[in-house]
């Protein structure tokens, strides 16, 4: 299956072949449209002139990396805060996974362990970790025993709750509609 989260072929191609780009896109996916967030890794790699590496991002001068993300058009509406978060994520990946993000999921024994590893990532709370786990399972075939249960509602087959369920423009529309319904229901309570 081909990743289609950015809804731009070149950005989605990077997300499909780079676990780091996918993790960074998920990290950026807050307070901005999903497509903007998942285009962010591509924008960063274009400005760097090559694919992202955790070691390079972690070692980058924080001010220079912030300037890279703030350059117009900005990678995120909060480039300074998100630059720091991306660098924290990269440093964690270097320290715990030798800079190889796929090691987070390649040797897990079950979904609970994978969820625990994702929740340990800087900038990943339980919900973001569950959504990413569902994305791995539904779109990349990373399906350790119990992955759906660990992903919670996001792991449900046939659901349209999150980026894990976006595979084309139609499913994006359905996910957005489901999110709007959830917001309205929360306001009504």
Description:
The radius of gyration is 16 Å and the shape is globular. The mean pLDDT is 95. The protein has eleven helices and no strands. Helix 2 runs antiparallel to helix 6 (79-97) and helix 5 (62-70) crosses helix 6. Helices cover 63% and strands 0% of the residues. It has 189 residues and is mainly alpha-helical. The chain has helices at 9-17, 19-28, 34-48, 54-59, 62-70, 79-97, 103-106, 111-119, 126-139, 147-151, 169-188.
Brief synopsis:
The chain has helices at residues 9-17, 19-28, 34-48, 54-59, 62-70, 79-97, 103-106, 111-119, 126-139, 147-151, 169-188. With 189 residues, it is mainly α.
Can you lay out the helices and strands and say which pair or pack?
Blueprint: H1 9-17, H2 19-28, H3 34-48, H4 54-59, H5 62-70, H6 79-97, H7 103-106, H8 111-119, H9 126-139, H10 147-151, H11 169-188
Helix pairs in contact: 1-2, 1-3, 2-3, 2-6, 5-6, 8-9
């Amino acid at each position: 299956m081909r990743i289609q989260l950015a809804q731009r072929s070149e950005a989605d191609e990077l997300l499909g072949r780079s676990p780091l780009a996918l993790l960074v896109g998920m990290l950026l996916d807050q307070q901005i449209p999903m497509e903007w967030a998942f285009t962010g890794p591509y924008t960063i790699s274009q400005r760097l002139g090559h694919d992202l590496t955790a070691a390079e991002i972690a070692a980058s001068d924080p001010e220079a990396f912030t300037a890279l993300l703030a350059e117009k058009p900005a990678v995120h509406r909060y480039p300074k805060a998100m630059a720091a978060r991306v660098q924290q994520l990269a440093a964690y990946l270097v320290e715990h996974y030798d800079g190889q993000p796929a090691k987070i999921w390649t040797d897990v024994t079950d979904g609970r362990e994978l969820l625990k590893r994702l929740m340990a990532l800087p900038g990943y709370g339980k919900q973001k970790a569950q959504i990413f786990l569902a994305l791995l399972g539904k779109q990349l075939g990373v399906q350790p025993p119990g992955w759906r249960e660990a992903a919670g509602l996001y792991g449900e087959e046939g659901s349209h709750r999150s980026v894990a369920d976006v595979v084309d423009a139609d499913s994006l529309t359905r996910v957005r509609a489901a999110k709007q319904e959830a917001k309205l229901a929360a306001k009504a309570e």
